[in-house]
Specification:
With 375 residues, the protein is an alpha/beta fold.
Length: 375
């Protein structure tokens, strides 16, 4: 690409669009750089380049949100696990459903290619459940439910009281490594546990893992979980890196509650706790939602600035690329792995208590707590 000099106040940054022909043997990263220039192709290329040039650095802490059925679609094994192993993910917020589905393979079940247009009543009779064009044996649900309940019955005494959802997911990841070491590298929960990457869920009751925890309450074997602890833990990850002069990046895969849970860390720091901060420094979202219908409420970068979620000075380093995550992410991850060096893992899983205590001390020392107490 060559810069074309034109007259006018905005012309200096204009780039001549000169795509090169795709030829046999070109790697994904070369195709992206030489052929994707305009519309969503252009924003996708810019997202790839933003991550490699500015986010994949040691002083940037990367949080990822996961919504939609990405684990059943194979994105866990093909994309998220390689990112974790290369040190490109520091913390995760996911729907509980994705983490529940991560367990099926460990128990000997596989997702199978199906059809979106099918007789669902017949599937029900045949004991098959459908996620659009993905099929799964119904028995997988029953065995996974038993695995979750049995693990928590046996190990709940080793959980802190109260625990966060990250403690639950770490416990499940540890159990996978113990009972199925041969497949541990194919489980997001197990790989994240080994890498020290905490996985939170913003709505722990809204999944089969949550339903099984509810069942344990009926057995008088409750798991003392407090989602407000999750709020403070994820906020402490962002607050800590910013306090030490580093930067915070968010990679949002889809939308929903996980997206907001990742982004609300900054309003929690600024608005609620009253601590000085300006917002996340880097922002990439892959989504098929539209802002004009409310589907991206509070999530487009410019709108997020008004909430304090994004640093206004960082708007040039924020990108929303519209499309299907299951299609976009494999190319995105391929580009990252080809164009950047692995990073050291930050091990936030074991640092949560220390970082939460730091957040508490500063809140009580210089935040809105002190102001309210004085009033």
């Amino acid at each position: 690409m060559k810069c074309k000099k034109n007259k006018g106040p905005e012309s200096d940054n204009r780039i001549t669009l000169k795509p090169r022909p795709i030829v046999r043997g070109m790697t994904v990263d070369k195709v992206i750089e030489s052929s994707l220039f305009s519309f969503n192709a252009g924003t996708f290329r810019k997202a790839c380049e933003l991550f490699v040039k500015h986010i994949a650095r040691e002083d940037v802490r990367i949080g990822v949100s996961i919504a939609g059925a990405l684990i059943p679609a194979g994105i866990g094994r093909s994309c998220l696990i390689p990112l974790i192993k290369s040190g490109m993910i520091d913390w995760i917020v996911s729907t509980g459903a994705n983490l529940y589905h991560d367990l099926h393979h460990v128990l000997g079940y596989e997702f199978r290619e199906g059809r979106a247009v099918v007789d669902d009543e017949q599937l029900r009779e045949d004991g098959v459940i459908r996620i659009y064009d993905i099929f799964l044996d119904y028995d997988a649900l029953l065995d996974t439910d038993n695995f979750v309940r049995e693990t928590l019955r046996r190990e709940r005494g080793n959980l802190p009281e109260p625990c966060s959802s990250a403690d639950i997911h770490a416990l499940l990841g540890k159990e996978i490594i113990k009972i199925k070491p041969s497949v541990k590298d194919e489980s997001l929960l197990a790989v994240a546990y080994e890498a020290g990457v905490p996985i939170h869920t913003s709505s722990p009751a809204d999944s089969s893992i949550g339903m099984n925890i509810a069942a344990l309450m009926l057995e008088n074997k409750p798991v003392a979980m407090d989602t407000h602890k999750d709020i403070n833990e994820v906020t402490s990850y962002v607050y800590d890196i910013k306090k030490r002069g580093g930067k915070s990046a968010v990679l949002l895969l889809g939308g929903g509650s996980p997206k907001n849970f990742v982004l609300q860390t900054e309003p929690h720091i600024q608005e609620v706790l009253g601590l000085p901060e300006a917002g996340h420094d880097f922002f990439i979202q892959f989504t098929d939602a539209r802002p004009d219908t409310g589907g991206l409420s509070g999530a487009t970068p410019s709108e997020a600035v008004s909430w304090g979620k994004i640093d206004p000075s960082a708007l040039s380093k924020t990108i929303v690329s519209y499309g299907d995550c299951s299609l976009m992410l494999p190319f995105f991850v391929s580009y990252i792995l080809n164009r950047s060096e692995p990073r050291a893992v930050s091990g936030l899983l074991e640092k949560r208590k220390k970082l939460s205590q730091q957040l508490k001390r500063d809140y009580r020392k210089i935040g809105s707590y002190k102001k309210k107490s004085a009033g």
